Amino acid sequence: MELTNTNENYFDPKPRLKSSPIPINFISFNNNARYCFYCKNRYTWTQSPNNQKYCEDCFSQYVNNVDGNNTYLDVLIETCLFSQFQGHAQSRREMFTTCNIKEWCKNCSSILCFKQIFAYTRFIYHYSLNEKPIPVLYLPWWDNSDYCLVCDLELKFQTNCQKLCTRCYIIHSGCRYCLTTNIIFGLSDQSQCRKCRRILVIDIKDITSGNSDIDALIRDTRFKIKNDHKIINDISSIDVTNPLDFYNFIRSNYRLADYHSTMEWISYSNIINLEKLAEGGFSIIYKAYWEGNYKTIAAKRLKSSEKISKEFLNEVLYLNHNITNIS
Question: Which domain of life is it from (predicted)?
Answer without folding.
Answer: Eukaryota
